[in-house]
Design a protein that fits this description.
about 525 residues, alpha/beta, Urease, subunit C, domain 1, 8-stranded mixed β-sheet, 4-stranded parallel β-sheet, globular
């Protein structure tokens, strides 16, 4: 159960802070759904699942998590218990000790060897030399020898269920896939009332999943791209929409490139009045400089940096996905790129570039790569069908996909220049259909390294940077006493090779310890259930 804590505005900006869901007060417990299993069996198996730190020998040197531990009916009960149980069955008073582990605290470069990390409930209470820290009696000991502990990762542009995944009515697979890859925080970039309820339930302890920040439904104008968006065609309509969404509890307002200048500026003003942030694309009628001046919290996909000199007709062509638009990256002079970098730093906006969605779109005409994905065997068949039959090739013309591929090196260069200038960056994926939740975040972090960031700097974009953006730098994103216990245990050092993020051995989410095998078994059971 997460404790209430203060929250600052994104990036430390002054002004009202976004609305936060009310968390249960200390000592208050959430009710979990009943689990019909023999009580003693559940207790015994749950304890075994908590204490297990099994890493099969045949995966120690590998790069993907392929092996499945088959489980019988009794173990299936405990998997459901772990999925559905509230704080009283998970982490409310549990104590854990990660003993003799290499700690990548993200508070300083490098990994501190031979450390012991103590966790009580949902908080880290001690981090110190293994030979001086006393493990409390009764604490569950996790052997950290030759392993590396780092903070949980964050996907700051995600889409769980909803309109982006029309064939998926139950988000359990997405939630488990995130945890199975070390992702303990996500920002759902287009929200709904159902997602608000899901986020609140996760914070209360059931179901099991990463904590979720939920943005508003999408705000669009004329020439709307998505039929599920809220269309606002005037300043008054924009203000009404912001008031409504803020009142309903959404934590930020998502804007799209079809908004008129009048409506966009009204969104910016009304969002400030109601203490919520706004983020998203750069409206074509506004332009990136004015968006930066208006105080937009983050720009997604680098959209808007590439519209200089394009006619309105070219901008709206193909729903804003024309080859002419992406070609702008190839024609952008270095001096103009430097101007955009300076304006971004001065404006204080964050960037969430989502390179992995671009990589997927470049190959959108051939989605058969999903069949060979190492996690395909663990994904429910219905979800795989959504991936394979997404039809994304119809959204991006062959010319647009080719031009996006040609523009990619220039976009990587822009990322490197933003980083060198001190512009804030964070990782996100867009988790569109045909993007596997969690696994594409590891690919995104690797892309930051490809752009020239060190592994430590790329990990900052997935840990400490999201915490800063969310105004939670004092409570998450690092391994320090007092921080929330969202942790990832790896079998190799990601600072030496970012690909070692695939060597996951366990995840602690909100103080719940889940071994790799438990997570994969839960996914396997979901996959089996989908075909029964």
């Amino acid at each position: 159960m997460r404790r209430p804590h203060p929250r600052r505005a994104p990036g430390g900006r002054s002004g009202p802070v976004p609305w936060r869901r009310r968390r249960p007060v200390a000592g208050q417990r959430s009710r979990a759904p009943p689990v019909t299993c023999p009580v003693e069996s559940v207790r015994r198996d749950r304890d075994a699942a908590r204490t297990a730190t099994i890493v099969p020998a045949d995966t120690r040197g590998g790069t993907h998590m392929r092996r499945v531990v088959r489980i019988g009916p009794g173990k299936l009960c405990v998997l459901f218990a772990l999925w559905a149980a509230g704080p009283s069955a998970a982490a409310e008073s549990a104590q854990y000790a990660f003993v003799d582990v290499n700690v990548i605290s993200m508070d300083a470069p490098g990994a501190a060897p031979h450390r012991t990390v103590l966790v009580e409930g949902d908080r880290i209470v001690t981090v110190g030399p293994a030979d001086t820290v006393t493990v409390p009696p009764g604490a569950t000991v996790v052997d950290g020898t030759d392993r590396f502990l780092l903070p949980g990762l964050a996907d700051m542009h995600a889409h769980i269920g909803g309109d982006y995944r029309p064939g998926q009515t139950e988000p359990r697979a997405d939630l488990l896939l995130y945890l199975a890859t070390g992702v303990t925080t996500i920002r759902n970039a287009v929200g709904s009332q159902d997602l608000l309820r899901l986020a609140a339930a996760i914070e209360d302890g059931a179901p099991l999943g990463p904590r979720m920040e939920v943005a508003s439904p999408l705000l669009e104008g004329e020439d709307a791209v998505w039929n599920f968006a809220a269309r606002v065609l005037s300043a008054d309509a924009a203000r009404v929409a912001v008031r409504q969404f803020a009142g309903e509890g959404f934590e930020s307002i998502k804007v799209y490139h079809t908004l008129s200048r009048e409506a966009y500026l009204a969104v910016a003003d009304e969002a400030r009045r109601h203490g919520v942030t706004f983020f998203g694309h750069v409206p074509f009628d506004v332009g990136v400089e004015e968006v930066l001046a208006a105080g937009q919290a983050s720009i997604e996909h680098f959209r808007g940096y590439d519209i200089d000199g394009l006619s309105r007709e070219a901008l709206v062509k193909d729903g804003g996905r024309s080859a002419e638009r992406f070609a702008s990256w190839l024609h952008m002079p270095d001096a103009r790129m430097d101007e955009l970098v300076r304006a971004t730093v001065e404006g204080g906006a964050w960037n969430c570039p989502t390179f992995v969605v671009n990589s997927m779109l470049i190959n959108a005409g051939r989605l058969d790569h999903l069949v060979d994905h190492p996690m395909a065997a663990f994904m429910p068949d219905a979800l795989l069908s959504v991936y394979r039959e997404s039809g994304l090739e119809a959204l991006f013309s062959p010319e647009s996909r080719e031009m996006l591929g040609r523009a990619r090196p220039r976009m990587l260069e822009f990322l490197a220049r933003l980083h060198a200038a001190g512009a804030p960056l964070m990782t996100g994926t867009d988790t569109f259909p045909s993007l596997v939740p969690g696994f594409t975040l590891i690919d995104e972090i690797a892309t930051f390294v490809e752009a020239g960031l060190s592994p430590h700097e790329a990990l900052q974009a997935a840990t400490t940077a999201p915490a800063r953006f969310l105004g939670e730098a004092d409570t998450r994103g690092k391994i320090l006493p007092g921080m929330e216990a969202d942790l990832v245990l790896l079998g190799a050092n990601p600072l030496e090779d970012i690909g070692h993020l695939w060597r996951l051995e366990g995840v602690m989410a909100d103080g719940r310890w889940l071994t790799r095998d438990v997570l994969l078994s839960m996914l396997r059971e979901l996959a089996d259930a989908s075909v029964e």
